[in-house]
Amino acid sequence: MANAQQEPLLLVSYGMPMSGEQRRLCPVLPRPEARRVHGRVYLLFMSAVFLGLAAYLLTQSRQLLRTAEEASQSLWRPGSDIFGNMVLAIGLLVLWLGLLGLHAAVADHPVSTGMFVGAVLISVHVEAMLGACYYHYKSLIWAAAPFDLTGGLPKVLEFVDGQTKGTALVSGGIALLQAFSIAAGLLHGHFQTRALRQQNWQCHVAA
């Protein structure tokens, strides 16, 4: 019985033929093929951006490793170009994995093109924010004192913490708002789709 009730909803959702009167009265869901195309284009575009930037950062780090100064004095040191490039590259890869999970989660939901564009802008904003925080952090370290694991570390960290605490709070608040907005958008799309499918089928039967 459950299958019998569910099957018409799927048929209507996936473009069941309707008469002219039914088309005039009943809402029409977006075709799933278009949603899949949008999702694949977005996934390919963002994968190319994330993986391309990560590969560029890793290649740049490899070139920096060849210089005697970087290899002997500032290797893997917070504030060095190598350390920052590796952190940003790892962050890009993590975001790419999250992107795959997000795409899998919304593959069967009617996510609009506008939402995909918004997700692209949010992703670019997150990467820009990461880069800005890193270079700001690096400039503060060099302005305070040379970073040294054997001495001066508490002084430098205290200086950096005092200067960046407000920035970190603001950035964290923005990130939380973005996460809640994305989750709310996905939930809204999910429940809206269920309601529209039910309304579509009832209207189709009534007409």
Distance between the termini: 23 Å
Q: Pairing-aware structural class of the strands and helices?
A: mainly alpha
Helix and strand element order? HHHHHHH
Main sheet properties: none
Percent range for helical residues? over 70%
Shape: elongated
Strand proportion, as a percent range, falls in under 5%
The whole-angstrom Rg is 25 Å
Number of helices: 7
Give the overall average pLDDT: 57
Low-confidence stretches: 1-18, 140-157
Whole-number total of structural domains: 1
> How many distinct beta strands?
0
Structure report:
This protein has about 210 residues and is an all-alpha fold. It has one domain (about 1-205). About 80% of the residues lie in helices and about 0% in strands. The chain has helices at about 1-15, 20-25, 30-65, 70-75, 80-105, 115-145, 155-205. It is elongated. The two termini are about 25 Å apart. Residues about 1-20 and about 140-155 have low confidence and may be disordered.
